[in-house]
Design brief:
The chain is 50% helix and 18% strand. It is α/β, with parallel strands linked by helices. Helix 6 crosses helix 7. The protein binds adenosine-5'-triphosphate (ATP) and magnesium ion.
């Protein structure tokens, strides 16, 4: 068997503390048509975007035709002791509340004290001179106590605010450096990124066409700019692929004059013009009116038959079931289950796959 065209190992993507992809491993072979299904927020789009480096992965190794084009073996977040950090943060926040309350308590006591002094003075005639002096002295010493306590509480509060809990205090820099040293990372340059994006081309849910250019120009521009193809050659190829998606009659139309289904077919033709080895589709039909879904799915079905390698994030279970060779179920940043469509749909092994499919397509 030939080597995989795309290999994904230990891929992780964090947005801050939000670990969107946790540990994704996948090998894609030439001619694979893979559907990725899974609940909203499970990381499907982020996964596709990482393959094209539209998002920079936090960790992992990506290889295309056996050449590594991205590799980060260690990320700082893996060397933060989040358990200790979160514990310290909770303690800190509680202390902040406690000392702030303490300041409020002694401030209130002083206000009450002031009222008490006022009251004693007004009722002076009810007391003997000795009684009055005794009460007065008692109040004076109370006031000193309150003031001392308030001062202490304010200082405590200020000290705590001055020393916030920082993530970096729970980060083991030496271990991180050692991990990088043991397994150096590969820094990608813009040349590599452009190369990958021309071989692994993305088709977006929202088309991402240039609205200030017509249909034909949209299909020419990346060929001449990125691939340095001569204009006439690029035009010929554009016409060929626009014809293959049945858009030959609309080549001089502005993008704004097209329906959603037509726009998506242009976007697919544009992708084909790059001579891609893989096309990534991120829910290509979900922005379309229902009557236009069919025409785009038809184009994709025909592409699959040509042997093109495709990875398709989709909610179209019909497509996943009938067209793809492999279905991947993703949840919560993991690939939970993968297999042949008939196995995934008729006999899923994981409870989570079963319950997703049940929710999605009923029994
Ligand atoms: N640029 C970003 N910055 C911060 N968080 C992000 C970013 N992009 C995605 N996320 C978060 O990552 C998680 C996964 O998002 P993603 O778009 O990959 O999910 P999805 O499976 O494609 O969902 P859907 O089916 O709704 O398209 C979500 O919680 C989202 O809020
Ligand atoms: Mg998505």
């Amino acid at each position: 068997m030939n080597a995989p065209i795309l290999k994904i190992a230990n891929l992780a993507k964090y947005f801050g503390a939000n670990k969107v992809l946790k540990d994704i491993n996948l090998e894609v072979n030439k001619g694979d048509v893979i559907s990725i299904i899974g609940p909203s927020g499970s990381g499907k789009s982020t996964f596709l975007r990482c393959l094209d480096l539209l998002e920079t992965p936090t960790r992992g190794t990506l290889s295309f035709n056996e050449e590594i084009y991205f590799n980060i073996n260690a990320c700082k977040d893996d060397f933060v002791d989040y358990q200790e950090f979160n514990k310290a943060l909770e303690f800190y926040n509680n202390e902040l509340i406690r000392t702030e309350d303490e300041v409020a308590i002694w401030s209130n006591k002083l206000i009450e004290h002031k009222l008490e002094v006022h009251k004693i003075k007004e009722e002076k005639n009810n007391y003997s001179v000795e009684e009055f002096n005794a009460k007065n002295n008692e109040l004076k010493s109370l006031k000193n106590d309150y003031l001392a306590n308030l001062k202490l509480a304010k200082k405590e509060y200020k000290d705590i605010r001055k020393t916030p809990i920082l993530k970096r205090d729970f980060y083991d820099e030496n271990a991180y450096k050692q991990a990088i040293f043991d397994n150096p990372s590969i820094i990608v340059n813009s040349k590599t990124i452009n190369h990958i994006r021309s071989k692994v081309v993305m088709v977006f849910q929202s088309f991402n066409l240039f609205n200030n250019m017509n249909v034909l120009e949209n299909c020419i521009i990346a060929q001449t700019k990125v691939l340095k193809v001569p204009y006439n050659e690029a035009k010929e190829k554009a016409i060929k692929h626009l014809t293959s998606v049945n858009m030959q009659d609309r080549m001089n139309y502005k993008i704004s004059e097209l329906s959603g289904g037509q726009k998506q077919r242009v976007a697919i033709a544009r992708a084909l013009c790059m001579d891609p080895e893989i096309i990534l589709f991120d829910e290509p039909t979900s922005a379309l009116d229902p009557e236009m879904v069919g025409e785009v799915l038809e184009v994709m079905k025909n592409l699959a038959k040509t042997g093109l390698t495709m990875i398709v994030v989709t909610h179209e279970m019909g497509f996943a079931k009938d067209v793809s060779k492999k279905v991947i179920f993703m949840e919560n940043g993991y690939i939970v289950e993968q297999g042949k469509p008939e196995d995934i749909f008729n006999n899923p092994q994981e409870e989570r796959t079963r319950s997703f499919l049940k929710r999605y397509i009923g029994n």
